[in-house]
Amino acid sequence: MATPPPPSPITAMFSTFRAELDEHHDRRERVIKASRDITALSKKIATSLPAPLPAPIATELAPRARTITALLTALLPDLHALHAWRYQRQLAPGLQELVEAAALQHYLTTQRLLAPAEARALLPAGVPLAEEDYLLGVYDLTGEIMRFAITGMARGQVPGGGARDVVGDLRGLRVGLEGLEGGEGALGREVEKKRKVMRACVEKVEGAVYGMIVRGRERPVGWVPEGGGPEERKREGVEGC
User: Could you tell me if 208 and 153 are in contact, meaning their C-beta atoms sit under 8 angstroms apart?
Assistant: First the structure.
């Protein structure tokens, strides 16, 4: 009986490559799934936030925040060392949505913008938060503040003046974000797209406040300013605006 030939070193080398690629794809899929789950939970947190924040709502949000922390903690082995940046693109949507929800809750409770260091402190050690993910989450925050302002106007509250000047805060955000340059490439295109959304959100709140002040007495109770309805948002395809 003939002796089988020894395994080729080329075959062994490609077997190693195959194992590494399989591990890479499995790790990538785990990061993508966790990012989607974090996105969904963060959206639920953002849409559940009224102002002021009642204790029952805060209690309801706590389990979702713990679930997000658990999802990120479970990813730590997949984000070790250089892998943290290798899979940054796959994790970015979830982190941006988390920044948006956390920044909205922070704004409603403190009327301040969540700082980058405060956003990073919300993440488990070992999960990086890139500057662009923080900034893109702040861009999306303007849409949530617009929703808060429009909802308040439906109850007859003008979102300007007094202790919480929502219009002034939105204008301040617009001034700061307008000064940022995303550069060229994918980030630049994403920044420009979100900048257009941000401008539209601020302008809608300004127009709605103007209409409410000038013609507020003619509006029926429960009136919602134009541009704040879900159908128009759907037609325009603008997130949060």
Answer: yes
